Each structure stands twice: as structure tokens, then as C-alpha cells.
Amino acid sequence: MIYSFKGHIPVVHESSFVHPLAAVTGNVIIGKNCYIGPGAAIRGDWGEIILEDGVNVQENCTVHMFPGKSIVLKEGAHIGHGAIIHGANLGRNCLIGMNSVIMDDAEIGDECIVGAMAFVKAETKFEKRQLIVGNPAKAIKEVSDEMIAWKTAGTKLYQQLPTDCQKTLKEVEPLREIPKDRPKQEDFYKTLQEIKLKK
């Protein structure tokens, strides 16, 4: 659902996909090849929210802020399931782990990885390429080339997902039994741990 608010109408590039069960409200600008999952709420009622090209905001995420703010999720930012971004700015090609909370005026640098369930306090600033974990969150080491290559490959899947959704996603009635010719899912992405075990 796309909603205007006080004269602000969201701008969504035609190559991006906003799931019908997501809510995008007001002063929101969504760039190219972005994916907004079901249950996501991007609320530009009190301030401006900019999603640059290739950003994904997955299921049940919230993006919001205090009045009068403008925030940017830079190109390729990857927001994992259930995360909350409240008035924070996210760097290029960063990963925000599932159920993390990033608070007001925090800044996550380019190519940072924030672990699942981390809590980043207001006004905390992290330089680029930091692995950030915990509550309160702290940087524990630098993100390796291997880690960022894995993250970037995962984000590319989400950058392809809008096209796949536009071409194939449709509301249907469920089947009542499993068909004999049910298609197999493709196996085209490995966890970082699986990649390390192969070496």
C-alpha cells in the first residue's frame, strides 16, 4: 500500500517492487531495483526517507524517525527481517542483521555488517567496514574481503527479486495436495560458513 501524507506522495522507481502487504507513506523516495517485503513499514510522515538504488527492506522491518529529520539508506544497503531503523543513516553496501535496532542519528559506515539482534544506540557512529554486534553494539573487528563479497552476492539476489516478483508473483488459491511434478527450488547461494567449509 502506498499512501500520500500532507501532500507528500512516495516516489518509487518502476524497476523496484513494493509488496502489496507493505506500507510506504509520505515523503519517501525509493530508487532503482529496490525490494520492499511484506509487512515492512516505511513511514515518511514526519521526515524524509531516501532509499538509494539496490536497497532491500525485508519482511516486518520499520523505517521511521523523529520529526524534521531526513535519512538515507545508501546504495545496496540490506535490511534483514524484522530490523528497525529509527532516524539512522546507513552506508553503502552495509548489512543490518535480523531484528537489529538502529537508533536516531546513528551512522553505519559503508560495508559494515551489523549482527542479528544488535542494538545501536542513538548518535553512535561506526567507520566503514566494521563488524558490529551486541547490546549496546560495538565494533569487534574489520569486515574481511571474503565477508563483504558474500554479503554483496546476497544483496544481488535481492536486487534481482523485484524483477522476479513483477514477472511471477501473483495471488492464487492454494493447492489441496502436493503435485507429482512440483518444481525443485534452486540452490544458488551458500552461507558464509558453508563457503569456508568448502575451502
TrEMBL record:
InterPro entries, sorted: Hexapep, Transf_Hexapept/Carb_Anhydrase, Trimer_LpxA-like_sf
Top-level taxon in the UniProt lineage: Bacteria
Pfam families: Hexapep
Protein name: Phenylacetic acid degradation protein PaaY
